[in-house]
Amino acid sequence: MSTEKSDISTSVRSRIDAIRARVETVIVGKRDIVNHALCAILTNGHILIEDTPGVGKTTLAKALATALGCDIRRIQFTPDLLPADVTGSSIFNSTSRDFEFRPGPVFTQVLLADEINRATPKTQAALLECMEERQVTVDGITYPVPAPFFVIATQNQIEHAGTFQLPAAQLDRFLMRVHMGYPSAADEIAILTSQQSANPIDTLQPESNATEISTLQTHVRNIHVDPSIHAYIVALVGATRSDVRIDIGGSPRGSLALLHAAQAWAAMAGRNHVIPDDVKALAIPILAHRISLSGDAFAKGMTERDVLTSILSSVAVPKA
């Protein structure tokens, strides 16, 4: 049985590696970011990509969606966007003399929410239900969105003009938040070379499909998690609630996100069990946007990453 599980884990890893390789034909030198994005997909979670304009946030989202072989629709968030522009609305049909629901762009498998923080909080809130419950309710009628369903959102840093801060409830529904960062000099030269005559994303072909993604997600949920790992996750998230440098700590949704993402991280490594290093590798991208620093910590120039790094070094790691 152990050999059989090992063979399955190896097969799963090979498929994940193939999807990653396809994405990396477009996204150069960002292996960590691509891995985090794939982890979110395997966990059936949503991902928020944040950074300055022009570093490839939208390109990464489009490359992921294409490589996954899923239907994709894009919403360019702007200040004048209305909730109905996202979810859809009921339109009166003069022929049938009745109201008909016209689905909005949210009814897709991959939703690219581009520059999500340029829309007003009211419009951002239109995504809350579909992100959490995979459904949309309009005029008292509930409509399920297609499966699988992922939101890949991009946002510019909050300091940029014309942006609105995402509400805490919205942030908490993203499995993780990642930052692209600038490429190295060598990687930027490679980008210039590859896009000198054409953009490789224009010819990118799917590597997977919705059915396989669902199968991979099922395998991830069956990855073994020892009770000591459960205790470790609870201790880490619990530490964010008692730390004096943090006003608002991680929620139970954050604990669940860390658990399921650790399972996906193990699957990506070809293992059929979670180890503490899986949890440690994901704690910051999963918990940083779920905590709120105290005024004193903020005044001292601390960041969420700084505080979480300190917590990771102080919480006892379970032994093998």
Order of helices and strands: HHEHEHEEEHHEEEHEHHHEHHEHH
The separation of the N and C termini measures 21 Å
Major sheet strand order: 2-5-8-1-9
Beta-strand share of residues? 15-25%
Oligomer: single chain
CATH topology of the largest domain: Rossmann fold
Task: Note the overall shape.
Answer: globular
| CA radius of gyration | 20 Å
CATH architecture of the largest domain: 3-Layer(aba) Sandwich
Please write the CATH class name of the largest domain: Alpha Beta
Q: Averaged pLDDT, please? A: 87
What does it look like?
With 320 residues, this protein is an alpha/beta fold. It folds into two domains: 1-180 and 207-222, P-loop containing nucleotide triphosphate hydrolases (Rossmann fold, 3-Layer(aba) Sandwich), CATH 3.40.50.300; 224-320, Orthogonal Bundle (Helicase, Ruva Protein, domain 3), CATH 1.10.8. Helix content is 47%, strand content 15%. The protein is built from 14 helices and eleven strands. The protein has helices at 2-23, 31-42, 57-68, 83-87, 121-124, 128-133, 168-172, 185-194, 210-221, 227-242, 252-268, 276-287, 295-299, 304-314; strands spanning 47-50, 72-76, 88-93, 98-103, 110-114, 135-138, 141-144, 150-155, 176-179, 246-248, 292-293. The strands form four sheets. A five-stranded parallel beta sheet has the order 2-5-8-1-9. Strands 3-4 form a two-stranded antiparallel sheet. A hairpin with a 4-residue loop joins strand 3 (88-93) and strand 4. Helix 1 packs across helix 3 (57-68). The chain is globular, with a radius of gyration of 20 Å. The relative contact order is 0.15. The mean pLDDT is 87.
